[in-house]
């Protein structure tokens, strides 16, 4: 968590978020909802802000990466709420439909996980979520296919859940059509948290890996290398310089 995020939380009158993340925060008015309640959660946070209260809407990782920031903009646009940036204007009148908004950057799971795995994202990469709750699976397959054809390192979010147990196997099959089965893969679960686990495998054995909703999978490109207990992707310095 960044120092700015800590400062914002300290000044907040209330905190809204998924119950798992809210449990990490104390001494604030809590607006907590469970999974699949994202719209309700965001609307409650916006309503607090319209009343002139400071409300921090929290997400895991970075709020703009597979998280709540985009939904805040969607709902504000739908409700025709004027958004202010770093404003000194009084926004306490709820009838003005005007709020001041700040997106506080965080540390996304792909950055935290990559640091634990080594340096797999030193060169170009693509991040794809395997959750088809909001995105049609046909579109996810198309994105995976183009990413592997372009030889990106591929970062997989949401590889498996209790209700979604086949998507990772299908993703593996698609990627194997264009990438060697010995391609190194890093698997990081609970990055920088108490349940943190780091392991390595190959693309050919990926379907046997233990993964869940807190897991981020790093599938190497054709140039990625497994070195000891690390995975890294050279950027190309050895082609230009003598190292």
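^ structure tokens above, recovered residues below v
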């Amino acid at each position: 968590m960044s120092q700015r995020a800590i400062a914002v939380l300290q000044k907040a009158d209330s905190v809204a978020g998924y119950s798992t993340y809210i449990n990490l925060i104390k001494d604030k008015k809590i607006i907590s909802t469970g999974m699949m309640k994202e719209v309700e959660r965001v609307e409650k946070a916006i309503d607090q802000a319209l009343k002139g209260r400071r409300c921090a809407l929290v997400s895991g990782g970075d709020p703009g990466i597979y998280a709540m920031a985009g939904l805040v903009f969607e709902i504000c646009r739908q409700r025709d709420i004027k958004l202010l940036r770093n404003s000194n204007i009084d926004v306490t009148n709820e009838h003005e439909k005007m709020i001041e908004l700040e997106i506080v950057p965080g540390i996304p799971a792909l950055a935290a996980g990559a640091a634990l795995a080594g340096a797999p994202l030193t060169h170009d990469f693509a991040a794809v979520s395997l959750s088809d709750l909001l995105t049609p699976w046909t579109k996810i397959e198309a994105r995976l296919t183009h990413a592997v054809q372009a030889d990106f390192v591929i970062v997989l979010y949401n590889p498996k859940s209790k209700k979604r147990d086949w998507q990772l196997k299908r993703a593996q099959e698609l990627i194997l059509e264009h990438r060697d089965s010995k391609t190194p893969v890093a698997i990081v679960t609970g990055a920088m948290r108490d349940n943190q686990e780091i392991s390595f495998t190959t693309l050919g054995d990926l379907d046997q890996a233990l993964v869940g909703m807190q897991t981020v999978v790093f599938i190497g490109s054709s140039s990625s290398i497994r070195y000891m207990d690390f995975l890294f992707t050279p950027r190309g310095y050895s082609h230009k310089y003598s190292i």
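The CA atoms of residues 5 and 104 lie 6 Å apart.
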